[in-house]
Amino acid sequence: MKKLEEYVRCIPDFPEEGVMFRDVTSVLQDADGLHLAIDTMQELIDDLEFDVVVGPESRGFIFGTPIAYNNHKPFVLIRKKGKLPCETASMEYDLEYGTAVIEIHKDAIRPGQKILIVDDLIATGGTTEAMIRLVEELGGEVVGVVVLMELAGLKGREKLAGYRLESAICFEGK
To answer: Which position among 51, 154, 159, 170 has the lowest Cβ density within 10 Å, counted as fewest Cβ atoms?
Structure first.
């Protein structure tokens, strides 16, 4: 049986020179890879107590929904600005070149609920940090973050000091 990291296709010099792009689509396109990814992420949080799973557009939806299903928990979407139909709370955060805004329905999380954030990747940690701030603004308590891949060289884990972060695969480079 292949190791999970063997399902990840690596593309050198994308999107720019010197970057080794870790492609999650190659995991998703292989039934065994997808199964192993979900099972591994699930195992990493088996001891965690949480009320709600939150995942960002779009790959957080892919990995978060089966984890929510496996644990019989609701799944809450975090989307790009302007994509949710009801009243939202929003958070702006920095990107490498500019800023972005994410939103969540204001009624999606109740004060005191324990939240698990699920995503495909943590790199610099900016998006994850924004999601945590958004959840906490609504009164939720982030008890953990689980991702498929961590790019350790970009030091996102440091930005999330004080939060439990689990990664199924950790790549040392960028």
So the answer is: 170
Alpha-carbon distance of 13 to 11, in angstroms, equals 7
Q: pLDDT-derived band of residue 19, with 50, 70 and 90 as boundaries?
A: confident
For 105, list phi and psi in degrees, rounded to 5: -60, 135
Structure letter (DSSP) for residue 91: E
**pLDDT band at 174, cuts 50/70/90?**
low
Q: Is 96 a catalytic residue?
A: yes
Distance CA 108, CA 151 (A): 30
Instruction: Count other Cβ atoms within 10 Å, centred on residue 148.
Output: 26
Q: What distance separates the 2 farthest-apart alpha carbons in the chain?
A: 47
Distances (CA, A) of 90 to 104, 122, 136: 7, 20, 12
Amino acid identity for residue 82 in this structure: G
Per-residue pLDDT reduced to its tens digit, 120-166: 999 999 999 999 999 999 999 999 999 999 999 999 999 999 999 99
Name the active-site residue from 22, 59, 79, 157.
59
Pairwise CA distance, residues 163 & 144, whole Å: 6
For helices 59-70 and 31-44, the axis angle rounded to 10 degrees is: 60
DSSP code of residue 53: E
Q: Which of 16, 17, 87, 96 is catalytic?
A: 96
Is 59 in the active site?
Answer: yes
Q: Name the one residue in this structure whose structure tokens are 């324990």.
A: 114
